[in-house]
Amino acid sequence: xxxxxxxxxxxxxxxxxxxxxxxxxxxxxxxxxxxxxxxxxxxxxxxxxxxxxxxxxxxxxxxxxxxxxxxxxxxxxxxxxxxxxxxxxxxxxxxxxxxxxxxxxxxxxxxxxxxxxxxxxxxxxxxxxxxxxxxxxxxxxxxxxxxxxxxxxxxxxxxxxxxxxxxxxxxxxxxxxxxxxxxxxxxxxxxxxxxxxxxxxxxxxxxxxxxxxxxxxxxxxxxxxxxxxxxxxxxxxxxxxxxxxxxxxxxxxxxxxxxxxxxxxxxxxxxxxxxxxxxxxxxxxxxxxxxxxxxxxxxxxxxxxxxxxxxxxxxxxxxxxxxxxxxxxxxxxxxxxxxxxxxxxxxxxxxxxxxxxxxxxxxxxxxxxxxxxxxxxxxxxxxxxxxxxxxxxxxxxxxxxxxxxxxxxxxxxxxxxxxxxxxxxxxxxxxxxxxxx
Length: 437
Ligand code: ATP
Ligand code: MG
Description:
By secondary structure, this protein is α+β, with helices and mostly antiparallel strands. The chain has two domains: 18-169 and 229-317, 2-Layer Sandwich (BirA Bifunctional Protein, domain 2), CATH 3.30.930; 327-436, Rossmann fold (3-Layer(aba) Sandwich), CATH 3.40.50. 38% of the residues lie in helices and 20% in strands.
């Protein structure tokens, strides 16, 4: 019988890979916590109408990328393609938006029916941050600083650039949209096929068309700057001033529009050239119109989402994963003989209680000393703790370093917890913080 395979574009994350995921997620959660963001967890499945209304009927996501199905009761459900719409739905449903500022974050799997390739999957992961209740550009700046800090902490700061733009008010965008369509109609035949299809449904998206000939035509198109309303202009200038004073470098890219309908005013993307075509690792902006669109009172809102797989690819490609991330075991307990096995079980429990953060594998399944020693080596542990018959009868334990040639030593079992704690003190920073956490 043939074995079943995972669905194309949906990946297993195996035990060898999960330490890097945990490292990345841990770093990001730490930074979000530093700014007072609190976690929210939403269901993976939502009513289809949420995304049609929230993301927009004429976006790539809704037109061709959603996993939509009828459940057994006949309701149309969709696997979430992004997190913002569900976050707003949850915040409205639970009354989180009345007269208050909410700083939220979420993390989890998203689903889009796209062509799988490097950095583009059908199940992928995002970590997102959303802020509700702040209309001023200070929060736009904060969100950008949060994203900048976590890229820096991961060692990726020198390999990304920040693209920034404003989409203005919806009135300004409407006027510009009309001018843009009027111009593009005059060159319609020369546009690439995608752009022709978008001409009336989502013309602003044509601005970030990947087609070179379309980009050439856009050089003579009307510029948004001439249509921008004063309020949005001031908002954007104030954001830029704040970023300047915080030392965040950025490129103003007038053709940055982003793929979702809900954005207004500020939009931004962190882009890298170290991943080939899938170069956007983080995208975000302001979306003041979304809460009312989903039935709430007008509420200013802004946020961003990071592509976890793309950040992981960057960490790997650029060799930015600290070696200790892969050190997931500290000690491996080897036992030979009945007495040793009985003592060992109790000793291991005591050590786990007394040595905070200790990661200790107790050997199970018997076998010769030699084969246990092999398993200890393979586990990646720093120390083998050996309980042979002699040690057991003398209530002792032998400690052997598996990473260097330090001579092995025999201690009283009662001293081992202290000995291990002292070792933590002389180890790498990672082990120290790990032991404290
Ligand atoms: P792209 O232009 O690459 O399709 P997008 O504009 O559709 O990206 P967003 O909806 O803004 O992406 O999602 C935020 C981030 O999530 C992206 O910047 C990217 O890092 C990541 N992402 C989006 N789609 C995928 C996917 N199919 N596989 C892996 N990561 C993805
Ligand atoms: Mg996309």
